[in-house]
Amino acid sequence: MSAPPAPTAAPAARTAVEDVTSVRAALRSPKRLRTEVLAGLVVALALIPEAISFSIIAGVDPRVGLFASFTMAVSIAFLGGRPAMISAATGAVALVIAPVMRDHGIDHLIATVILGGLIQVALGALGVAKLMRFIPRSVMIGFVNALAILIFLAQVPHLVGVPWAVYPLVAVGLLVIVLLPRLTTAVPAPLVAIVALTVFTLATALAVPTVGDEGTLPDSLPTLGLPNVPLTLETLSIIGPYALALALVGLMESLMTAKLVDDVTDTRSDKTREAWGQGGANIITGFFGGMGGCAMIGQTMINVKASGARTRISTFLAGVFLLVLVVGLGDIVGRIPMAALVAVMVMVSVGTMDWHSLRPATLRRMPRSETLVMVTTVAVVVATHNLAIGVIVGVVVAMVLFARRVAHVVEVIDVGHPDEHTRVYAVVGELFFASSNDLVDQFDYVGDPANVVIDLSRSHIWDASTVATLDAITTRYAAKGTSVTIRGLDEASQERHARLAGHLGAGH
Fold first, then answer.
1. pLDDT at 18
2. pLDDT < 50 positions in the chain
3. What start and end residues bound the annotated signal peptide (predicted)?
4. Which of 41, 352, 380, 504 has a CA positioned 20 to 30 A from the CA of residue 458?
């Protein structure tokens, strides 16, 4: 009789997942190693204009953003919990630290980045990554769709007020990225598009905007140093709020991106390690004079979805290639037409969008509350250009709608009169602050007999508000000379009721 296959299925599945993200396995496979190397090169090319743009937002020299992207990518390749995810200087972090740079200068900005990294390490150690379980699917879909819109909108400035030749170049780039994978996947289509358009513009001396037009590329390596700020409470009061904001925004974007990559690659990652890994990367970045950062969703999608990378090799090489390109090959990189990178990012935005969620058939089946949460998340993110704020608002809206929905499923049922002096009520449903507020008005205080029994065997007490409501019901009956007995409590509800009943104060 053959043994059932079930006991070996789970380990086999784990081994397959581990092999997909294993650096050792990739190094043993020339095909996979080539994919990782070329993916890192494509990402590095795409990082350059983004890092320069975010440096401008933060009000710092382009070298600060480029060095931050290098140190973040290399550091997170070793420290992070999500293989193949790209971390670098980002717009969200740039927006947070811009006021520090404007009002206090570069040294305070660097100190803010280091403190923000320390806070992220602490939050990671405290298990903040576990909060990801409270982000609903509708918020996640809104986050992804908003990201796709932001990536596309970020390309619009490169398509407005430019020479006419930019438009056919972008069109050709899009065609290469769409059609080449149908012929071969040996080389990433985005890389082919970038190289082909660069060669064409150089050969024809076509005057179009280039990477070099975005800002000056560095010609030296980053150096290790400490920020020149006094170690006082005054300094802490200046940088503390911004460091906390940087830590929270960076962690939220990074953990959301990690979850998205998990879904795209059908693998799992260590979110707790990713949390403290992001902190460690920011600390290192600060000591090297970088502006800090977090996971970059657009570049991560280029790496994972467009290029097929799955391991830390691509992340590490993205940082290494970035430094080599901007320091050693700056003259060549500066001549890459922005049209090529725009084409790559437009296809990233198209691939990132969850088109299934926008189909009329899907919207008809989806509960209106779920659609409202998704739309709210998208609207807030697009309006603020801040993914973290949009996610927070989306989660709050989802919680409010959930509480509102659950609050209306509590019933008070008259289940019988054992004798002429007793009436029994059964409360059915989950009791918490939203559902228990109306509970006090569902009893007949005037018409009930001398003894009232409230059966809670089909409900559960979740909070102090419910205990306070039960106290209020008991008090109102007592004023009429009626005795109240509460029965049927499960163990957790009994413990909570026994601990709080009679100790919450009138009206509370």
1. 59
2. 1-10, 12-14, 507-508
3. none
4. 504
First and final CA of the chain: distance in angstroms?
67
Distances (CA, A) of 295 to 63, 188, 254, 256: 19, 22, 5, 9
Note the pTM of the prediction, 2 decimals: 0.72
Residues in the chain: 508
pLDDT value of residue 6: 44
Q: Looking at the domain assignment, is residue 234 inside a domain?
A: yes
CA distance 156 to 142: 21
Please give the residue range of the domain that contains residue 392: 368-406
Q: Are residues 177 and 298 in the same domain?
A: yes
Number of domains in the chain: 3
Pair 95, 319: CB distance under 8 Å: no
User: CA gyration radius for the chain?
Assistant: 29
Alpha carbon distance 121, 293 (integer Å): 14
Asked if 296 contacts 87 with a C-beta cutoff of 8 angstroms, the reply is yes
Q: Where are the beta strands (DSSP E) in 206-286?
A: none
Question: CA–CA separation, 74 vs 226, rounded Å?
Answer: 20
- Residue bearing tokens 């509590």: 410
CA–CA separation, 88 and 227 (whole Å)? 20
Residues 395, 417 within the same domain: no
CB 85 within 8 A of CB 314: no
Task: Please tell me whether residues 238 and 97 are part of one structural domain.
Answer: yes
- Within-domain flag for 7: no
- Asked whether the beta carbons of 273 and 81 are under 8 A apart, the reply is yes
CA distance 302 to 308: 8
Q: Which residues contact 429 (CB under 8 A, 6 or more apart)?
A: 406, 409, 410, 411, 435, 458, 459
Q: Three-state secondary structure along 43-95?
A: HHHHHHHHHHHHHHHHCCCHHHHHHHHHHHHHHHHHHCCCCCCCEECCHHHHH
Mutual orientation of helices 30-58 and 189-204 as an angle, nearest 10°?
Answer: 60
Contact 88, 323 (CB under 8 A): no
The single-letter DSSP state of residue 460 is: E
